[in-house]
């Protein structure tokens, strides 16, 4: 078994390299759009090769542009041209035969003085915990370079072999706002993850700052604030998901069970003051981070039906509504209500079946 993930790397090009990458990115996208328009007009896939493309791009990028254009045309034709996408975001894509790296630079062909020349571009390939370093030792795929918030980012697809565990130890994880995540193992070990109060405070602070910027009509500053908030939220999800998977490893868990997220915004317990947080927090992203990090460790992730997981007593199966943060059943069983949710998620019906026994 294998899993493909994307590793993001910050690039530090020189001013000349940044200018070249900017020009190439716009040319690359316009070349794809021109090819798509030609194919739609003729109602057939192009037979052009890189020699037929009149654009200031290395032949590797021309070939990739043809490949991308054919892919878009194929999808448009399948929909009977109801929608013909027009690509807008500037970028360049190289296949894995046309770039290399040495953990300080990424070398790839770019246009210099009208000719393609393989050029090293400085890159921050190693993050704080060396995860990028370890991931990039595996099979590499395409390299995509884009500019985001005045920063150049390289995205490399990496295919990593995974070995599924053979055990049957199960852990339930309940996601929420006041407590971002609670995990309970099948031998009743409990761990809380994240800080809901801190998260809400940070998000209120971001909104307050943008409100003040709005009164001053500083639109660029507002956009920068939104980007900063998204980066902060994504970083929180990375930290929480890593901690959850580490907790699973420590307890030799082979299966992590999560709620199916289709209706989480309707089922998550919230109040009017938390409504803005609920609709801006990415439960889906956190669950995806948990899944891909768990799979890399050979831990399977299953999704369960979340119905009544926070109301059903794990001891007698009677349904009760929690009072504030405490759940108390008539049979005498009493716990934090998020722990109740995680306990029940361990044994809830798995969506699509094929579950491990708990």
TrEMBL record:
It comes from the Bacteria. PANTHER family: RNA-GUIDED DNA ENDONUCLEASE RV2885C-RELATED (PTHR30405:SF11), TRANSPOSASE (PTHR30405). The keyword Zinc-finger does not apply. Keywords: DNA-binding. Transmembrane segments: none annotated. The keyword DNA-binding applies. InterPro entries: Cas12f1-like_TNB (IPR010095), RNA-guided_DNA_endo/Transpos (IPR051399). Residues 283-345 form the Cas12f1-like TNB domain. This is IS605 OrfB family transposase. The lineage of its organism: Bacteria, Bacillati, Bacillota, Bacilli, Bacillales.
């Amino acid at each position: 078994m294998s899993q493909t993930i994307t590793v993001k790397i910050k690039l530090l090009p020189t001013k000349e390299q940044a200018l070249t990458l900017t020009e190439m990115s716009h040319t690359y996208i316009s070349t794809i759009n021109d090819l798509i328009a030609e194919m739609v007009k003729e109602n057939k896939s192009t037979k052009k090769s890189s020699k037929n493309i009149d654009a200031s791009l290395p032949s590797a990028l021309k070939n990739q542009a043809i490949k991308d254009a054919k892919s878009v045309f194929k999808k448009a034709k399948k929909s009977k041209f109801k929608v013909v996408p027009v690509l807008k975001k500037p970028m360049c894509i190289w296949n894995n035969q046309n770039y290399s790296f040495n953990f300080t630079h990424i070398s790839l062909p770019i246009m210099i003085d009208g000719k393609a020349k393989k050029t090293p571009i400085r890159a921050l390939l190693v993050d704080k915990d060396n995860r990028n370093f370890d991931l990039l030792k595996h099979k590499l795929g395409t390299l995509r370079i884009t500019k985001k918030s005045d920063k150049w980012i390289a995205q490399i697809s990496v295919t990593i072999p995974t070995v599924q565990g053979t055990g049957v130890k199960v852990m339930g994880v309940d996601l929420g706002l006041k407590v971002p995540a609670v995990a309970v193992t099948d031998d009743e070990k409990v761990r809380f993850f994240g800080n809901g109060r801190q998260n809400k405070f940070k998000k209120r602070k971001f909104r307050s700052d943008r409100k003040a910027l709005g009164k001053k009509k500083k639109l660029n500053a507002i956009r920068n604030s939104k980007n900063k908030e998204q980066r902060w939220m994504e970083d929180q999800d990375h930290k929480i998901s890593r901690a959850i998977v580490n907790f699973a490893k420590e307890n030799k868990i082979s299966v992590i069970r999560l709620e199916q997220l289709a209706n989480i915004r309707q089922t998550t317990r919230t109040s009017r003051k938390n409504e803005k947080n609920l609709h801006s927090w990415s439960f889906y992203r956190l669950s995806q981070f948990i899944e891909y990090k768990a799979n890399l460790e050979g831990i399977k992730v299953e999704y369960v039906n979340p119905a009544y997981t926070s109301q059903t007593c794990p001891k007698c199966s009677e349904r009760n509504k929690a009072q504030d943060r405490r759940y108390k059943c008539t049979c005498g069983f009493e716990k934090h209500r998020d722990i109740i949710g995680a306990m029940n998620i361990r044994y809830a019906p798995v969506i699509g079946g094929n579950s491990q026994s708990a």
